Amino acid sequence: MNLFYVANSDQLKQPIGLAASEALAHARAKVQAGIRSSILIYVHGRAGGLAGIFGGDDREPEKSFSKDKIVAELETRFGQAVVMLHWPHSGNPLVFPIEDARQAKARFGELMASLSAVPAEIPVRLLTHSMGSMVLEAWIRDVGIDTATLALGRLRSCLISAPASALDGSKKWLAACPRPVVTLNKDDQVLKHISEHGPLGLMVASGVGEERCESALYVDLGPLSVSHRTFVMGESNSPDREFIIKNVIGPTLQAGVPDMAALVATPWPNVWKTPPSMAAGGTAGFVQGEG
To answer: What is 46-100 written as a DSSP string?
Structure first.
């Protein structure tokens, strides 16, 4: 049985592994009790640490729960009842386990099928980070655009953070997502190491080109001094990351769209960028070990 991970409201650092339907029921109860505002399906990125070189595991779900406290921040800062889709993969930080991410498409399908039991009045949102976009992409390509569009239509918002998926072909699968918000950053210090293809997340506003999905909203974070994991503050005290959390991530997770008044328009109607950096040089928002 595939396990999906949730946390009790008073023990956010302790992952609880449940079947898809049970995990969604656990999150639904939080929303119905008024403890959280929405259910958030979170698909994590690569989690390999240095221990992976010597045969260690992928460090999930511990990384997102107890080590980096990602789930705790998503719950408390943004009011989300998190259901984390964990996809097992190599823990080696020197490789990108692309096939492992793609093979997790069935797990994503389990969650989509189980959503039928969640009352329509309960908001359900999606967050993919880094290689998590590859899980979503593989499922969409597997079931087909029409089927995926229908199933994903249940979601109130869709945030594709630092996508590791290839730019080429992204226009087609993104169109199946309901008004996806996609963050880009040419200075992403993790995505730069993907050699198999040109990652969508590395593009600048002008580089999306013919692959620009008309229904998506792209936000270029390049003007700011941040790197890979920008959807939580973590241990960073970067004013640039604070800007992203306040004006891009928070509003998207809670209302489905960034605070457009805080962003800068580009020649393309659905491509925006952040204002210049407020940090004093470097990549102040980068925290070593982000994945």
So the answer is: ----GGGGGT----TTHIIIIIS-HHHHHHHHH-EEEEEE-------TTS--HHH
- Over the stretch 62-78, which tens digit does the pLDDT of each residue have? 889 988 899 999 999 99
Angle of helix 132-143 relative to helix 105-114, nearest 10 degrees, comes to 70
Dihedral sign for Cα atoms in the order 199, 108, 181, 37: negative
Residue with tokens 């793609």: 102
Task: Tell me the pLDDT tens digit for each residue of 129-174.
Answer: 999 999 999 999 999 999 999 999 999 999 999 999 999 999 999 9
- Return the residue matching tokens 């389990």: 110
What are 211's two structure tokens? 């692959």
Place of tokens 């096939």: 99
> Which is it for strands 181-184 and 217-220: parallel, antiparallel or unpaired?
parallel
156-170, 195-209, 257-271: least confident range: 195-209
Element (H, E) at 38: strand 38-43
* Residue 279 to residues 1, 225, 260, Cα–Cα distance (Å): 46, 6, 21
What pTM, to 2 d.p., does this model score? 0.93
Q: What is the dihedral of CA 135, 139, 142, 143, to 10 degrees?
A: 180
Please enumerate, as own/partner, the contacts of 210-213 that have beta carbons within 8 Å and a separation of 24 or more.
210/171, 211/167, 211/168, 211/169, 211/170, 211/171, 212/171, 212/268, 212/270, 212/271, 213/170, 213/171, 213/174, 213/175, 213/180
Q: Which residues are paired to 5 by β-bridges?
A: 17, 84
Residue 189: both structure tokens together: 């210090």
Please give the single-letter amino acid code of residue 237: N
